[in-house]
Specification:
The structure is a homodimer. By secondary structure, chain A is mainly alpha-helical. Helices cover about 70% and strands about 0% of the residues of chain A. The first copy, chain A, has ten helices and no strands. Chains A and B meet through α1, α6, α7, α8 and α9 of A and α1, α6, α7, α8 and α9 of B. Chain A binds a DNA duplex through α1 and α3.
Chain lengths: ~220, ~220
DNA sequence: GCAATTTTTGACCGGTTGGACAAACGTTAG
DNA sequence: CTAACGTTTGTCCAACCGGTCAAAAATTGC
């Protein structure tokens, strides 16, 4: 006798129950990531998402309460993945090595998760209406914390003195650029270096820029 | 006797327009820039734009053929403004001074024309459906040209050897970041340094990063 | 096989959106 | 004034979009 479950899309303390339900929700989220990341929230339609995963619209709405619900679920999941590299950033080991590691991880994320990057960029571009609180709370706190680590390195003369928070911005900007502005990057590089090799070129360049730029001045 | 002009929105070889028509079109474009840059193309409505400039929708459609037409006009105009700093970039004078000038100009554009920056970012994020050709043609050509200037500096040992095109990407990314990700930047910096002072901090940081990062290695 | 439950679907609905249109209004030259 | 043209508006429409609903279909436990 099946245990009482009912509509999956109903809000409840305990999330989706059966294996099939979890799988279907996953398929929907996968398709939604594709659609939302390329058209933005308002530019995407439930029909597009439903088509993208071979489902009818009402069927999709059986698994999620609505468009907003899908987007929110996607966003919450994204944020965890997105902050992970910065959380890893620590003051064990050599400062320049640590920075290089962070740059590398961020660039790998731009390469491996470009849709997530674009989804995030879309949200910020439009004023971050759904994650404003998180930016001013969790993110700010995390950045402040890491900036303090960097500042300590500067005090110890291990790296050049600069504004640590703008340093973090610069790392974000340069790495995410390869995901968010991918079309432009490909267009400018042309077919010759438009393959995946551009990420290796970028890694080389960024390491040189940041490591030379931050080496302690004698 | 008024010379034959007719509907302003009609496509015609010569954009023969009265003074009033040119002014009204300007007002509309100004409002449209506001709306498109914060909601994206699909996320914006003609009604929003009409309201923003105190006009009725049909009245607005008397001056432009449609939503697409407004966006296209805005986009064409934007591109000229957008490429200007790169065009100015030349090999007269000291390389590092020239680079600093370019970074400064780009950062000033991010400060003074954030809406244009976001409009551009929106277009690229969504795959640049309307300006793909321009990216692969005009822009690529311009970048190649400037990259050659930078490469010559490297051959002369005036700046450190790196990939010139990724250098340009890095300058674009870091400067435009302050316009496109403004909400995030403000949130992280907090109220203390969230004023316009952040652009001065950014200028100082970016100059240090790029000039130290590119000084010829002894 | 049967009944309870989950999943899928087609039909439908109200609201929004881009746009058309003709009629009204304003302006200007003779 | 009047004719001709430019400008503005109210009204309307077809397409789209998010979402509901009841009923059909498939699945599951026994």
């Amino acid at each position: 006798m099946p245990r009482r479950i009912g509509r999956v899309s109903e809000a409840s303390a305990a999330p989706a129950r059966t294996r099939i339900q979890r799988e279907k929700r996953e398929i929907i989220l996968e398709a939604a990531l594709d659609v939302f990341s390329t058209h933005g929230f308002r530019g995407s339609t439930i029909d597009q998402i439903a088509d993208a995963c071979g489902m009818s619209k009402p069927n999709l709405l059986y698994y999620f309460r609505g468009k907003e619900d899908i987007h929110e679920t996607l966003m919450l999941r994204l944020l965890e993945t997105w902050l992970a590299p910065l959380r890893e950033f620590d003051n064990v080991g050599d400062p320049l090595t640590e920075l290089r590691g962070y740059i590398r991880r961020k660039l790998e994320m731009a390469r491996d998760y470009p849709r997530e990057s674009r989804l995030f960029a879309n949200e910020i571009l439009q004023g971050a209406p759904r994650i404003r609180a998180m930016l001013e709370g969790e993110l700010k706190q995390l950045v402040d914390e890491k900036a303090e680590i960097i500042r300590a390195w500067m005090r110890d003369g291990k790296i050049a003195r600069t504004d640590p928070r703008h340093l973090i911005f610069a790392i974000w900007a340069t790495t995410q650029h390869y995901a968010d502005f991918d079309v432009q990057v490909r267009a400018v590089l042309g077919p010759d270096r438009g393959g995946d090799g551009r990420f290796e070129d970028a890694a080389r360049f960024l390491e040189q820029l940041f490591l030379n730029g931050l080496s302690p001045r004698s």
